Amino acid sequence: MNGNDATAHNLTQHTPKSVIKVAVLGAESTGKTTLCRDLAAHFGCPWVPEYMRTYLQAKWDDEQLTCTWEDLLPIAQGQIELENKLAAQAAQTSDNSHYLFCDTSLFELMVYANWYYSDCPEALTQAALAHHYDMILLTDVDTPWVADDLRDSPHQRDEISAYFSDQLTTHNKSFRVIGGNREARVQQIVKLLGSAE
What is the model's pTM? Predict the structure, then answer.
């Protein structure tokens, strides 16, 4: 299955040196998007939406079809293009703290590819493991599951979260588990970023 053609896809990460990137990963419906929005509002900086949701929602709306193997590399390219664009914007902000909060990353896409297909396109794996984030957060499974057109694993969130933790550890990616209510999550990260500077 690993023959997905990567020749048309550029998955190179471009991050200005002044930008501090935080990747927010985790199982579905664990508050990743809400957390990124809240952090961006707190720091007055950009955040990177999850491109996969936009891509797959359009596919569902147009064709009533869900994600396939052939969608993985186009999704990966869309995600990194969006991240690179917003990283350049973050570098232009007037504040001294140039943060960029990323709602998922190629690492998350790689994890889900292996979860659903027991495989991942080689180009995606290489990019996911090469990309750098100054901090990686794993959202805890302590928020209610909310149904939508794309979510499909209300009873597997703990198992998927454990798989994320295992994969991050396996690939020597340092991470922090973030839980609690919205305000508590933001305050935890504000403290973490303050201590990291």
Answer: 0.88
